[in-house]
Amino acid sequence: MSPLPTTIPELVRTRIRAAVRRPARLTPEETEARVLLLRMCSLLLQYPDAELAAARPVLTATVEALPPSPAAEHLAGFAAWFAGQDLESLERHYVEMFDLRRKSSLYLTYYLHGDTRRRGMALLTLNQRYRAAGWETDGGELPDHLPVVLEFAALAGPGGGEAPLRQHRRGLELIHRALTDSGSPYRHVLAALLTLLPPPTEADRAAVDQLVAEGPPNEEVGLDPYGTYGEGEFAPPGAFVPPAPAEPTRVPPAPTSRTEGPR
């Protein structure tokens, strides 16, 4: 899209940009297929426990039955790998990619706000959005965990439901880039999701490059003495683990009788 003339009032330019980036109206069939794609991405990005692993035949069949699209093609690539791994390998790979790799964490507000006070407000706002739509999460994950955000998008629809995904598009781009650099098959799931969002702008690409180079915002709360988190990487949410608490002080047993005095 060519730059808008600067003579147009800022409010009008903003509305034009919003209209250009807003999802097109979908037919009922397209909406149904989109909901299924979002739910599949949500499922496939969850921890591969025994229950999810046992459902692989159903997941693979569902992916194969998706209407042809770039997103369906990406998911088919992931499903083929997912179906052929043993449970231990799946669990190990998931932990390595999403729990131990700083640039592919699934907590979206971290990429936008880092470990700052603004992140807490963003989490609260996201929870309020869910409740306003009549959806209560089970509390097992933070509201910005990508599978949770995807499930909300599937439930609430392309407009307001997908707004958090559009808001955190740069974080999603960063996760996809990190997974691609690592050669992880999970890159296919992120690629499928990104095909459902508006194309990135030049500003988006520049912001992702800056995130790669510098990491998210940081309030400098004095954790430097605890060391760095790896060359070229930044700390994920909850990366700092406090030391184990000291053993409780042992208190001598109380006298057995209240009337018994010192001897």
UniProtKB/TrEMBL annotation:
Gene Ontology terms, MF aspect: metallochaperone activity; unfolded protein binding
Key word ATP-binding present: no
Bilayer-crossing regions: none
Database matches in InterPro entries: DMSO/NO3_reduct_chaperone, NO3_reductase_chaperone_NarJ, TorD-like_sf
Alphabetized Pfam families for the sequence: Nitrate_red_del (PF02613)
Residue ranges of the region described as Disordered: 215-263
Gene3D superfamilies the record matches: TorD-like
Domain of life: Bacteria
Pro residues bias locations: 239-255
Biological processes annotated in GO: chaperone-mediated protein complex assembly; nitrate assimilation
Protein name, as recorded: Nitrate reductase molybdenum cofactor assembly chaperone
Phylogenetic lineage: Bacteria, Bacillati, Actinomycetota, Actinomycetes, Kitasatosporales
Gene assigned in the entry: narJ
